[in-house]
Amino acid sequence: MVAKKVSKGGGDAGGEGPLQAILLADSFATMFHPITLERPKVLLPLVNAPMIEYTLSWLESAGVKEVFVFCSAHANQVVDYLENSNWLNQPNFSVSTIKSCKAMGTGDALRSIYDMDVIHGDFVLVTGDTVTDMSLTEVLKQHKERKKRDEVLKQHNERKKRDSIAVMTMVIKQSKPSSPATNQELFMAIDPETKELLYYDTSKSDTTRTPLLNDKQDCYIDICSPVVLELFKDYFDYQDLRRLVQVLLDDELERYKIFTHEIHSSYAERVESYRSYDTISKDIIQRWPSYPVIGSGTTIGKHSEVSNSVIGEDCVIGSNVSIDGCYIWNKVKIEDGCRLKHAIVCDGVTMKSGVVLEAGTVLSFNVVIGQDFVVPAYLKVSLLQQPVIQDSDSDEELEYLYAGYSSGNVEITSVSDLQMQAASEVGGAGFIWSVGEEERRHSMAPISADQLVEMITSATDELDISNAESTSEEVGLDSGDESDFNGDISNYARFEKEVEAFFLKTIHEDIEEERIISVVTTLRLLYELDSTHSASALFYAMMKYAVDTPHDNSAYELFQITDGVIELWGKLLKYFLPSIDEEIEVLLKFEEMCVESTTEYEYLFPKILHLLYDKGILQEDAILCWASEKEHADESDRVFVKKVEEFLQRLKERREKKV
Fold first, then answer.
1. What is d(CA 23, CA 294) in angstroms, rounded to the nearest whole number?
2. pLDDT (tens digit per residue) in 78-116
3. How many helices (H) and strands (E) does the chain have?
4. Strand residue runs (E) in 283-375
5. Which CATH architecture has domain 2-132?
């Protein structure tokens, strides 16, 4: 069933019709159970706005003209939401909904869309739990150029029955470090020249001629040709697009080619688990502070403390309540003396006086927790009983067993009836759901120091157990304490301060370089940040030390001091710059410092950039990439690019001579 809305205009410059997109409003996963048994994931609030709002806003801003929203689980809720929103009335941006409650995965969704014959050219494929600000201009250009080359080759090889064709471009980025909070490792092999994907799997292989990479993250944003839809008709029993990708890569005939497009400074993440929900919420607050952290109509009683949390609309919070690192949705009632830490509380929940929610707990819709009840760490509570799932050999079998729930087919008569049925386990109304180790890893509960040390020692051959333990002491960790590492809204800000403090300590105590690397790496993993943050934080510490060193306020003397600091500590900084991503992050941090914290450097930006290049800290590829990514930015974001235009031109000429 398709609910059509006529587009009011808008085609692309290439004359190929308006750019289309398929937005999957069902993740076909169970990670957010029991919440998603009652509401579709794309309608769950993310910093007080439904997830789907972020995805639709991005598609509109990125130049997409026509979006097909495929709804499966709780399809009617998604359709009703869109019909009551402003999305169906936007000029030059068409939104249509497609319903199919029988779809069990992405494969079923794309087969249904193929049968409807609504896709007429290249399209963007994305899920409704995606938050990104990337531009589509460059990846679309690359995708179309490859298709044109394929067409030319086909004309010159008419004898071949079927030529190899480019069918998809996958967006990737530098991955975050492996930790107990992240998903399983991903290995890719990518042709360094053409960017063609040669291998994609969660396990290693010794058969690839190109070195395997395990530092890339799949953003699950794809540019597809209509052939992708046809392939799912051919491979009629496949549900997962990435599994189909593996099959195509293993095809001995090599009929289809898949390429990658790596983003650097742009943001792109999917809300795949409760932990990523927490991380992405913090990112949104940092990057787009216009989103409200406390909704309208909410009241907070006397002597209550709310920190590092997001609270929805029309909530009533009593007196002497402590809320730290939590997400309280709408119309929640929390009575006096309750204590909540790193928890998610859904709409309509009532917590009687004295309730304690320990880290990682989830209260689903309309649950009632009785007076003085303590909900232990990691547990979930719902008005729906937990389904009994037998051991399963595959994800597909598990999805079928869950089908009655995840497809939105649970019959809920009324909230009061459910509360009466579930009145025994939590002193109010709600069934306790048991959780496994996988769910614990993906919960919002902070990682303990013990877990952190274990993670570091297992991931890094150079660090032994004693080394990691002494590192914990240096950064002030108590190995027996479930420390509040995730509580701050800005984990990076805390990380940056820690690195700066430790850098000053190294200057005064002559600490060995290996120890510095060990501590900075530990701190980064502690705050669950990626490798680019180590470089930017250390660079900030170095530059801040230089500007804080007493001088006569002349630009010349500040430059001389900075030159000395870079000369002394440049080798250490270079250790944290293994790729172009980290170098670009340093450039972005330098821009930020010139505008915000250390404005003394603004005038010196061109000279210091040249200095960093001459000393081999920043390579010409990183500098030119930094500049090119700002070509279409606002004038305010191009201030420092303009300051170094002559230097950039010389780098371009030097590169051309090399070629």
1. 29
2. 999 999 999 988 889 999 999 988 888 888 999 999 999
3. 21, 28
4. 299-300, 305-307, 310-311, 316-317, 322-324, 327-328, 333-334, 339-341, 344-345, 350-351, 356-357, 362-363, 368-369, 374-375
5. Alpha-Beta Complex (3.90)
